[in-house]
Amino acid sequence: MLASSSNALLEEASAFFNLGKLFLEANKRLLVKLEEGKTPYTVARQWDANRQERPFACLRAPTPLKTMSGQVEYSLNSAGIIYDTGLVSVSPDRPFDLHIGEQPGLVTYKSIITAEFPERKNLPFTHSLEYSVENQSGKSVFLEIAIPVSYGVNHRAEYHFTKVPDERPGNRMIWKYTLAPGEKAALQFSYDAEMKDDPSYRQFDYSEGGR
Fold it and tell me: How would you classify the pairing of strands 184-193 and 96-102?
């Protein structure tokens, strides 16, 4: 789909492309290269702890393009071979991540223990959560642990951290670690809530006492 550069809704856009007069043959596809750029990248490990068994690795790079797009298809090539394809958002003000698979050598653990305090009328339950990742890969790794935020329905949940999150984008909390070989990241926090079985932290294999 092509949008006209004279569209009033696009007045604040940072980039326009004048494609001129295009000749489209019947039953043919026309590809037009709008932008091209090079960018350095680093390898990051991410653990979406509420949904995944173990961390995955991704290539993280600043966006070299000026055009913003909510969702584009990418193709990751290595030595001329297509290594991975998928969808990613493109925005000049933030980096993009290309997933390259699960990360071996990182051992994970998590648990949730719930205690009840009937005397607290609005927030009678305290959930204590524990997460840990041990680096058994033999090399230093950069790791992010992402955990969802529970807001509550009638009463807002109250969090208590031993280590505050490094970032809180949207409805997630992110902690960042650089782990040397054999080093372990230990993350613990608790929160007071109105619900005993909070769906925010029951989506993936938690158990009292850990697993």
Answer: unpaired
